[in-house]
Structure formats: structure tokens, C-alpha cells
């Protein structure tokens, strides 16, 4: 008999409880990744995450081989694939690390039921969240709806467990009577990489998908921005944040590992900035808790009163201007171009760009969420809709709708020296630090930069009136 480990959003050997358990069993081991675009409700990956997945799986396959194992790739509805594979390899045990989205949980429960009916052992582990949603409850037993008490409740209990080291050797794969391991797909046959046009050049120069890249980001962060995170994180023109998000998204590094690495690096009195960074990890956990409680977070307003909100469908030209970074507002445009070029956008700019879409253009947040889903390398089933709903005012613990980011004020405040604007808007690089935030006043149009697609005062007033109508019922 053999053990089957099914990897999903946990593409790592380090702190991987399912894999460590399999190593300790010592039986022949099959490690499988399933590309599942067929199970009901499972959201297909966007373009940027497909690119990431391709490279992450390449890295993972090499790491598994170096440890004496092998990565098997199969495609299709996961329940069928895992069942067939278990039968084919005579597996006695199926192991995985838990997922928290609704459709994914249904798939996993189906596999568990099937295993129980057929006398196989199926076990799941906690690996990707430090605080699993059902363990963090209010006094009344329900989920938290506000971040601060949620995070306080998380930190009230014991410290997150210590991470497990990667197994040095893994058991060899099980083979058939002819000595062959089970057959799988070639990664290239999944066609995860863009072809014509190939837009991935900027992603490739920005990122190193896989475990080694994740550890490098963590080391760079601890040696650099961590100590000043509280202030540095708001400045898009410097590397003030960790850029760990896509690595966390694919589980190339464990949040437990990050948590304890911070502990070790700042053993005595951790600076306040470390606490702020930890609470950002807490927001990730909070978003997953929201998704766990509201599996339709990406399509339904968390606050149902927003079902009556009078979103205006943007014209194709307006939507394209936003997507392509041609709104005429430099901070928004720099952000949208950073997103297109690198698959990532600074958090402060995400907030400004999202606010511009849902407030100044009055577009339904789902349009923005879908664009981010397709273009972000960290696009995440929980954090993306939760943050969009946060900006739109329809979410949990949301920014109130009447808080409308002014892209010019934000730009002056957080990119005063215009480093960020100049990096992504080369056509404006000739304008001085003052003028560059309002290029329509200062020769920016002559340099080929677009005129603002909406006026700020009018569009702000329109948004506030629309919100007032919602409140008045
Ligand atoms: P750091 O500042 O170094 O933070 C460390 C980690 O904490 C991040 O890697 C991330 O895992 C977590 N984190 C930080 N801020 C948040 C937050 N607001 N919500 C949830 N987790 C957070 N984050 C995603 O991971 N995936 C998304 O799809 C996503 N979509 C977003 C959409 C909008 C409209 C907005 C405003 C924010 C979105 N975020 C998303 C949150 C945030 O912008 C990114 O997590 C952050 O910019 C990632 O960069 P970093 O790793 O350098 O973050």
C-alpha cells in the first residue's frame, strides 16, 4: 500500500504537515497536484496566477525530486482524479492540508466520504492559516465581523505552533508491476503560460515563484523594511513591504514560518512596526474567515443593503482607461500600469485605484475585482473580494462609503518625491515634483498623457448623492 499526498495551495516542502506525515509513514508515496477547473463553483485561475502556478510547480517538482520523490500532475474534477489515483496506486492513506473556500471544502469532504466508505484513511492538516475560522468565535459563538476584536481574539490564545522543517528525504513513489510510477500530464500541456501576446516579461523580471524565492523575500524583508514597516508600508516608491503575497497565495511559504521568523529576528522587544506587520497577516486570516462564512464573497454584497446601490455601468472607454492606466490621474494610472507590468500593485495604490473605480466612476466593485483576479499574481479567493468590498463600503468592517480617496491628495502625500509616478509614467518624468500630481495643469497633456476622464469634485458629489439615496431607502 502507499500514501497519497494531494498538494493544493501549499506548494512547499517546508512546514507542510501533510507531507511530513507522509514521510513519517515511510510507505511508497505519490505526491499529486490537480488542476481542477471542473468541480462546481471552483473559480478558474486568472492569467497572472496561471503564470505563477506554472513556475511554482516547476520549482516544486525539482524540490521533490531532490528529496527522492516526484510530482505527479493530473487535470480534471478533483474528486474523480483523487479517487481514481488512489485505486490505481492501491493507496491506503490520503493526506492534504486544509482549504477554506466553499466549493473546495465540498470537494474535500467528498473525497473524505469516499475514502471512509472504501476503507482508506483520509486526514487533513492545518497549514495555511494560523487561526482556522471555526476556532475564532465571539462570546455568543458567531464569527467576528470587525477586524480588531477578531485579531485580539486570535492573539488571546496560544502562540501559533512552531513550523515543521522540510523532510530531508521522502519515500520513493509507488510503482506498478512493471516498476513504473503512475503517469501524469506534462506541465506544458496545461498551457498556463501566455502565448500571443506574451505579456509575462515584466512578471518574470519581478518575481521568483517557488520556495527559494519566498525565503529570499522573507530574508530581504527582515534585513530591510521590517523595522520601519509602520511608515515604509505606505510609500509606494520604496520597497517598504514584504512582497510575500503571491508566495503566501500559493503556499510557498507558511504563515507560521513567517510568524516565527519575525520572533527570532526580533527576540526581545519587537518594535511596534513588527506588530503592525503581524496584523497585516491577521487581515489575511480575517479575509479567509469572511470567505469561510460567506462563500459567495466575490459575487454578493456582504452588506445586503448594497444590493440596492445604483452602480452605473462604465462605458467601455472608461473601463478600458482604468484598466490600462489612462484615467488622467497619475497615482491611479501608475498603479494600474504597475499591475499590468508586474502582476502586483502597492496596497495604498490598490486602495486609491479601487476607490476611483467604485466611487469616481461609480462602477460596481465586481468589475474591479474581476480585473484584479485576472491580473494580480497574488489574486486570492478571500483577500481580493474582501478588500474590494472593503473599499466599496459593502464589506465587513469596511471603509465607510463616504470616504472617497482623492487620488491627487494621496499622490502628493505618499509619493511626494514622485519616484513611483516617474517609474510607471515615463511620459511625465519631465514634470517637477509639484506639477506631476496634476499634469493637466502643467504641460502633461502635451507630453501625451491623457486628460482626466472625470472631474474629481463632480464625480465625488455624484457618488455621495448615490450613497445618500441608498441610505434614504
Ligand atoms: P505586506 O504589507 O508585506 O503584508 C504582508 C502580508 O499580509 C501580505 O503578503 C498579505 O498576505 C497580508 N496582507 C496585507 N494587507 C492585507 C489586506 N489588506 N488584506 C488581506 N491580507 C493582507 N491581497 C492579496 O493577498 N490578494 C489579493 O487578491 C488582494 N487584493 C486586493 C484588492 C484590493 C482592492 C486591495 C485594496 C487590497 C488587496 N489585497 C490583496 C491586500 C494587499 O494589498 C496585499 O496583500 C499587499 O499589497 C501585498 O503586498 P505585500 O506582500 O508586500 O504586503
UniProtKB/TrEMBL annotation:
InterPro entries: Crypto/Photolyase_FAD-like_sf (IPR036134), Crypto/Photolyase_N_sf (IPR036155), Cryptochr/Photolyase_FAD-bd (IPR005101), Cryptochrome/DNA_photolyase_1 (IPR002081), DNA_photolyase_1_CS_C (IPR018394), DNA_photolyase_N (IPR006050), Rossmann-like_a/b/a_fold (IPR014729)
Ranges for region Disordered: 162-187
Cofactor: FAD
E.C. code: 4.1.99.3
Alphabetized PROSITE patterns for the sequence: DNA_PHOTOLYASES_1_1, PHR_CRY_ALPHA_BETA
Annotated keywords: Chromophore, FAD, Flavoprotein, Lyase
Domain of life per record: Bacteria
Domain Photolyase/cryptochrome alpha/beta: 1-130
Keyword Nucleotidyltransferase: no
Pfam families per record: DNA_photolyase, FAD_binding_7
A GO molecular-function descriptor: deoxyribodipyrimidine photo-lyase activity
Family as reported in the entry's similarity comment: Belongs to the DNA photolyase family.
Protein's UniProt name: Deoxyribodipyrimidine photo-lyase
Source lineage: Bacteria, Bacillati, Actinomycetota, Actinomycetes, Micrococcales
Amino acid at each position: 500500500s502507499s500514501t497519497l499526498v494531494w498538494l493544493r495551495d501549499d506548494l512547499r516542502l517546508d512546514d507542510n504537515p501533510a507531507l511530513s506525515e507522509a514521510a513519517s509513514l515511510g510507505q511508497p508515496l505519490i505526491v499529486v497536484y490537480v488542476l481542477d477547473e471542473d468541480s462546481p463553483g471552483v473559480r478558474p485561475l486568472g492569467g497572472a496566477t496561471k503564470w505563477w502556478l506554472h513556475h511554482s510547480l516547476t520549482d516544486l517538482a525539482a524540490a521533490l525530486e531532490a528529496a527522492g520523490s516526484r510530482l505527479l500532475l493530473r487535470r480534471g474534477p478533483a474528486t474523480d482524479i483523487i479517487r481514481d489515483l488512489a485505486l490505481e496506486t492501491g493507496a491506503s492513506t490520503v493526506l492534504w492540508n486544509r482549504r477554506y473556500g466553499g466549493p473546495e471544502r465540498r470537494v474535500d469532504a467528498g473525497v473524505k466520504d469516499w475514502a471512509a466508505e472504501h476503507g482508506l484513511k483520509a486526514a487533513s492538516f492545518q497549514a495555511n492559516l494560523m487561526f482556522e475560522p471555526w476556532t475564532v468565535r465571539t462570546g455568543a459563538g458567531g464569527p467576528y465581523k470587525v477586524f480588531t476584536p477578531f485579531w485580539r481574539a486570535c492573539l488571546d490564545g496560544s502562540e501559533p505552533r512552531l513550523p515543521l522543517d522540510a523532510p530531508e528525504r521522502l519515500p520513493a513513489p509507488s510503482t506498478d508491476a512493471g516498476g513504473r510510477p503512475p503517469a501524469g500530464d506534462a506541465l506544458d500541456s496545461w498551457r498556463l503560460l501566455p502565448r500571443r501576446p506574451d505579456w509575462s516579461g515584466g512578471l518574470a523580471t519581478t518575481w521568483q515563484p517557488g520556495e527559494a524565492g519566498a525565503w529570499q523575500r522573507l530574508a530581504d524583508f527582515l534585513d530591510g523594511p521590517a523595522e520601519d514597516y509602520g511608515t515604509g508600508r505606505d510609500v509606494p516608491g520604496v520597497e517598504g513591504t514584504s512582497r510575500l503575497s503571491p508566495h503566501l497565495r500559493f503556499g510557498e511559504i507558511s504563515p507560521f514560518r513567517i510568524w516565527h521568523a519575525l520572533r527570532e529576528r526580533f527576540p526581545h522587544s519587537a518594535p511596534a512596526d513588527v506588530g503592525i506587520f503581524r496584523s497585516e497577516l491577521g487581515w489575511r486570516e480575517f479575509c479567509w474567515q469572511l470567505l469561510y462564512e460567506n462563500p459567495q464573497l466575490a459575487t454578493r454584497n456582504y452588506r445586503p443593503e448594497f444590493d440596492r446601490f445604483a452602480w452605473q455601468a462604465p462605458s467601455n472607454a472608461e473601463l478600458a482607461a482604468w484598466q490600462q492606466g489612462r484615467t488622467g490621474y497619475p497615482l491611479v494610472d501608475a498603479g494600474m500600469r504597475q499591475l499590468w507590468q508586474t502582476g502586483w500593485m502597492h496596497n495604498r495604490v490598490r486602495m486609491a485605484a479601487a476607490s476611483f473605480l467604485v466611487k469616481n466612476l461609480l462602477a460596481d466593485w465586481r468589475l474591479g475585482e474581476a480585473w484584479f483576479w485576472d491580473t494580480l499574481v497574488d489574486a486570492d479567493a478571500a483577500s481580493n473580494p474582501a478588500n474590494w468590498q472593503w473599499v466599496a463600503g459593502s464589506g465587513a468592517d469596511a471603509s465607510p462609503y463616504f470616504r472617497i480617496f482623492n487620488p491627487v491628495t494621496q499622490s502628493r502625500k505618499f509619493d511626494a518625491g514622485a519616484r513611483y509616478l516617474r517609474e510607471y509614467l515615463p511620459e511625465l518624468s519631465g514634470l517637477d515634483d509639484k506639477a506631476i500630481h496634476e499634469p493637466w495643469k502643467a504641460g502633461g497633456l502635451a507630453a501625451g498623457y491623457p486628460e482626466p476622464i472625470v472631474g474629481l469634485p463632480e464625480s465625488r458629489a455624484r457618488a455621495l448623492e448615490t450613497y445618500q439615496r441608498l441610505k434614504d431607502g
